[in-house]
């Protein structure tokens, strides 16, 4: 260890306490990476602040000693946004995990950035309220990371992204300044709202340490439908038909390959005997017999049109949860194949074109590779997962996927879509940011970062390529 590194660690141990600073190899390995697994972690140390003030002190120390900081939440990200590969100090927010009592009058809940998403949902539920942002990793993801990536998930079609539910933030900027943004107000029209700069900023402006979240009434009797679809075109035809019947809570899709992986490796039962190219998972509120009858009628019409080949509807909470596993277990199940993930989007009406164009690109380049499709198709978000062949070296696999990504992103740019719908840019998408953002936009984002992080110590290498 170089003298400067020893000085840094000594300064951190003096600033905090020895039990809040770790250089243990297993801890460095764990906290130095996220779910992407494409980069070898190499952080200098991991620190565990217990308060916003301690986070501010860490930032000031980093400015003085000129070392970089990487925020760490649940590390469930899929774009390399929490990777520390160049001797950075990782700032874990695990200990900032407070969840205060729900304010039923304001319909808000105040939480620390390290609070687990599922725990926040449970606290809202105990107060007969609902925090609607939900996804497969909610049991391990932290709210600070959700906010820093403007997480979406399965309910966006009804409730929108995380941004819609953040009433206030406490942040520590790259200068060590503590800002309280919006303070939970519903109406506050006093100039620029910096809260929205930090939402989705991936830690390049500073640390989110506390948040006030909005809550709402829970849905009534959520009911799940799984439909076996005849082909790609049927995906949007069914959405249009059923969405015209009742507002939907979710409209998810997945391919037969995705279904077969979950059935075989996660022990999930098939929804029905019929195997179809694609499946739609629909959730709606069964708030009356009329709603149920209308949905039945819409499904029957889709079957008569040949779009739906088989269908099942949940009759209990347990069955609804079992059907959801078909969709929610996909990401964890396919992790064993070290998938190269593309989280892409277009407007909902252009999804069939996007799906067809990208599928053609991938199969033209690598016809023998397994391509696993799933996503939140009701809001235009597709997850393309290219599974690594068993005999292919991981670095070679990543490089070859990067090559094909150029053609994929060209197709996305042609449709006016996004190269990252909800996972953020991180390190994996940074080389391709220009496919969604113009040169002027990128320059403006860099200028904003320079204001909040003049020393460039905050999560370097994320979103932007080095100058």
TrEMBL record:
Keyword tags: FAD, Flavoprotein, Oxidoreductase
Stored InterPro entries: FAD-bd_oxidored_4_C (IPR004113), FAD-bd_PCMH (IPR016166), FAD-bd_PCMH-like_sf (IPR036318), FAD-bd_PCMH_sub2 (IPR016169), FAD-linked_Oxase-like_C (IPR016164), FAD-oxidored/transferase_4 (IPR051264), Oxid_FAD_bind_N (IPR006094), Vanillyl_alc_oxidase_C-sub2 (IPR016171)
Cofactor: FAD
Ranges that cross the membrane: none
Cleavable signal peptide: none
FAD-binding PCMH-type domain residues: 39-218
Coiled coil: none
Annotated Pfam families: FAD-oxidase_C (PF02913), FAD_binding_4 (PF01565)
Family: Belongs to the FAD-binding oxidoreductase/transferase type 4 family.
Protein name: FAD-binding oxidoreductase
Organism (species): Candidatus Paraluminiphilus aquimaris
Lineage summary: Bacteria, Pseudomonadati, Pseudomonadota, Gammaproteobacteria, Cellvibrionales
